[in-house]
Amino acid sequence: MEKDSYRLEAFSDGVFSIAITLLALDLRVPVFETVNSKNLFEALLKEWPSYLAFTASFMSILVMWINHHGIFKSVRKTSSELFFANGFLLMLTVVTPFTTALVARYLRTPAASAAMAVYAGSFIIISIAYNWLWAAATGCSHATEHLNRVTRHYRLGLPIYCLATAVAFLNPLLSLGICIGLWIFWAVTMREA
Amino acid sequence: MEKDSYRLEAFSDGVFSIAITLLALDLRVPVFETVNSKNLFEALLKEWPSYLAFTASFMSILVMWINHHGIFKSVRKTSSELFFANGFLLMLTVVTPFTTALVARYLRTPAASAAMAVYAGSFIIISIAYNWLWAAATGCSHATEHLNRVTRHYRLGLPIYCLATAVAFLNPLLSLGICIGLWIFWAVTMREA
Amino acid sequence: MEKDSYRLEAFSDGVFSIAITLLALDLRVPVFETVNSKNLFEALLKEWPSYLAFTASFMSILVMWINHHGIFKSVRKTSSELFFANGFLLMLTVVTPFTTALVARYLRTPAASAAMAVYAGSFIIISIAYNWLWAAATGCSHATEHLNRVTRHYRLGLPIYCLATAVAFLNPLLSLGICIGLWIFWAVTMREA
Amino acid sequence: MEKDSYRLEAFSDGVFSIAITLLALDLRVPVFETVNSKNLFEALLKEWPSYLAFTASFMSILVMWINHHGIFKSVRKTSSELFFANGFLLMLTVVTPFTTALVARYLRTPAASAAMAVYAGSFIIISIAYNWLWAAATGCSHATEHLNRVTRHYRLGLPIYCLATAVAFLNPLLSLGICIGLWIFWAVTMREA
Q1: How many domains does chain B have?
Q2: Is residue D167 in some structural domain?
Q3: What is the pTM of this model?
Q4: Nearest CA to CA, how far is D170 from chain C (Å)?
């Protein structure tokens, strides 16, 4: 029997895959004065905040998608709440390339704190959206135990992202490090699940 | 048995999910003179018309997709008319990031009336396209009663968007408020369905 | 039984839906001097070649996708040739937003002939790619009769696009009119199929 | 029975199809002084490195997707390692439009060596990611023999791309030629498979 949530998942997969791909639009071909191979290598290396922000966001969206996949695995029917909780999560996902671009642009400037606070702060809201989706999915699921297992580690997100947002005002690079550390932790613990 | 409308839905899901994600391309990293955290926060706050327009359009496309999903749930076969009614709706959907960018760019300027008239006006045409799709789907559906229920509230779209377009010339912000109020109404009533 | 061509169709649907959506990226928010509603309306109206080119290309890609759908409906297995014929068609599809942007940019300039020749010329190659895909699909299909019916009208594409390319050097607008007339003809005849 | 890897494939198809379509964003409408048809043709012809890089990357991603398809054909269950190996491959795929733009921009300049070294070098990492995915898929597959056949020719990638990266410093055009030759070889041998 076809799952009722089929098109919800297909639509979500579409949004996740596009958002994750659009992250790469912020990797820009460098422009510089004297064009030679040495200068191109140097100009590329100077763009390290872009690469760091791209990797952090790509892995974050990937983990979000894997968890989304985990939640919907046991969902069989849909509800209006599920549609809107999912829509809210997707709206925040779609904004991630923008917050990533902010970090890439301002990480080496005196505005790094604000950029990182917005970036980590957006993941606070994503964590809240995730909890809402989790609650909405529980009502549509036939296996809440599975859901609990999937999201056990992910619940760390909310307090850790709050910490990262606070740290952003003291040390923006440390704040980014906390965000990166979180998805590495998720990746490792997921392997064991 | 596989539904004949399968690829039509997959293609539509693709277009909806890309159009909804491209909305975020108009959230631009602000550029300003003295770079520090306070100025970055201020520069971001000044972009509120972009965030408002983004949210309004994201939710509108989401509601459109949910209704599209509702219509096709009971469609089993396809017809040429269904293909073209659907194509016409998708063409207008794809234009939404453009009309959204218009509003984001001109909402705080003396050209706000024109921008909002184009924005609300595009949703008039979308409502008409939706009605055409609904009519085309009725001929391909085995459960027109379901279709009627799904679209009952959505039919309010045409007169309300006509009102919003007219109001745009008097008070552009009120016009945007009407558009936002409409999808909030749809979201709330859909919950009850 | 799952069709072997399932992922080929899913991938193609993805490319078609993205290419058709990217067409809208060339609808640009106009920038002009004295900002008021009258000037914004005028600036938007002046962009008519963009809207015309967008509509023509959107409908062309839509018809191409509908035909692609028609061809694969009777395909059950895949072959390497099918993969590459399909890949070649997708490569040309992906280029359409670029040729469309050329027309939108140069239709009102003395370079209109070159822009339209490139645009119509790209559809000549697309027609050839389409014929190759049709031949490759015939070998993988269980219902070649269906295939013949689907593509009967589409075969007009090659000679008509050759004509449109030639006409481009004499009258670019007429050339665009021929391209638009062709998909209207397809849309109408498809209804009857 | 639905394959457990279904959404993994759908998500990957999404990313592949978007990345391959975004390649076309780097085909830019030329801007030049005296606007007439002759100059537009010349300006377009001068962009040949863009077209060459676009074709090379499009075909490379197409071959990567065909191989991805081949690997997952025999995968029935998923593992965390499969999710992350796949995610790593997708991250590199998504970067390809950026490395392609580098080549398109700098192939005719004294910085051609650096651009081609980055381009070919990115395919070295992609080959490594591919080998990891292959290893992860073997554990989830019921037909490792099929997997071996699919990837036999693709394993040439790693040494050949190392060669192409080294050659980039001596002769960038030859390096690009090696990359192009490789996917032509794959296309031809795949036909025979």
Answers
A1: 1
A2: yes
A3: 0.88
A4: 31
